[in-house]
Write a structure and sequence with these properties.
- With about 300 residues, the protein is an alpha/beta fold.
- It has three domains: about 80 residues, Winged helix-like DNA-binding domain superfamily/Winged helix DNA-binding domain (Arc Repressor Mutant, subunit A, Orthogonal Bundle), CATH 1.10.10.10; about 100 residues, D-Maltodextrin-Binding Protein, domain 2 (3-Layer(aba) Sandwich), CATH 3.40.190; about 100 residues, Periplasmic binding protein-like II (D-Maltodextrin-Binding Protein, domain 2, 3-Layer(aba) Sandwich).
- Helices cover about 45% and strands about 20% of the residues.
- It has eleven helices and twelve strands.
- It has a five-stranded mixed β-sheet, sandwiched between helices.
- A hairpin with a 6-residue loop joins strand 1 and strand 2.
- The chain is elongated, with a radius of gyration of 23 Å.
- The two termini are about 45 Å apart.
């Protein structure tokens, strides 16, 4: 057995499809199938059930999967360790970013890192915050920019980028626009437009409602702050946003801080404690980028 066979095995297991796995590892489907068959012969057991349209792991395949991943990770660590000693950083870096986010300091950090270490392949993936957190925990992602309701998610390290109170944003003629102070109970008396579950901002809102025994009527959901603001501006509900998100729509919407929701929505860069040189180096560039450049108002999607 060799590392190439293990790579193909993991690819098929994760994609649950030989064709997609072949595209992922950049060889023909027949080549992947042949290598998997050879690996099965060497192990003396079938790794996949091929009777259905999807390739599902057999009991033996499930038993082998984590060991195969560990072997590939160990092989990658050997290359990184040698590269570090030789003052080179190579390999692959997978970065997650919350959907709809355009926080340019992250892009600046990636750009500087890429120029300094062109031998590192960078992947950038978008998803909702909950799945990104789990991706970092499982090592599927090296680090991620997420919206969160807690400063440091359990088991991870974090750099807080933005910390803001929740606001309600409404058209100028709305009854809430005429109130100088707004409580959560006032807000949930109206249809709500907000981000979907799995986002940090929604988590803060849901927890605040639960703490007060309130049941909001979620009329519409959108992943981007601009879409939420547009829907609220058209009278389809009151928008739940952070202060900077609402501020960029000041001409169309009036916003009020929700006085009795003190827990802020956070935007944070998260990662696992690691000795991987590429991750450590990107963190250096990220701290510099976020420390010297304020995120543009209204653009983050928590």
């Amino acid at each position: 057995m060799d590392l190439r066979q293990l790579e193909y095995f993991v690819a098929v297991a994760e994609e649950q499809n030989f064709t997609r796995a072949a595209e992922r590892v950049h060889i023909s489907q027949s080549g992947v199938s042949a290598q998997i068959r050879q690996l099965e012969r060497e192990l003396g057991a079938e790794l996949f059930d091929r009777s259905a349209r999807t390739a599902t792991l057999t009991v033996a395949g499930k038993a082998a999967l984590e060991h195969a991943r560990a072997a590939l990770a160990a092989a990658g660590a050997v290359g990184q360790a040698v590269g570090e000693v030789a003052d080179l950083i190579r390999g692959r870096l997978t970065v997650g970013m919350v959907i709809g986010c355009t926080i340019t300091p992250l892009f600046d950090a990636l750009s500087v890192f890429h120029r300094a270490h062109p031998g590192v392949e960078i992947s950038l993936l978008e998803d909702n915050s909950d799945r990104l957190v789990e991706g970092v925990r499982s090592s599927a992602l090296d680090l991620a920019l997420v919206g969160t309701a807690t400063a440091t998610p359990d088991g991870l390290e974090a750099l807080t980028i933005i910390s803001e109170r929740l606001v309600v944003a409404v058209p100028a003629g709305h009854v809430l626009a005429k109130q100088r102070q707004v409580a959560l109970r006032d807000v949930v008396a109206h249809p709500i437009v907000c981000m979907p579950p799995g986002t940090g901002l929604r988590t803060v809102f849901d927890r605040a409602c639960a703490a007060q025994g309130l049941r909001p009527a979620i009329a519409l959901q959108a992943s981007a702050a601009d879409a939420i603001a547009d829907l609220a501006a058209r009278g389809l509900g009151v928008a739940i946003l952070s202060a900077s998100m609402a501020a960029s729509h000041h001409g169309r919407l009036t916003y009020r801080t929700i006085d009795d929701v003190e827990t802020p929505a956070l935007l944070a860069l998260i990662w696992r404690s690691t000795h991987a040189p590429a991750v450590r180096e990107l963190l250096v560039h990220s701290r510099r980028a976020f420390g010297s450049t304020a995120p543009p108002a209204g653009r983050p999607s928590h």
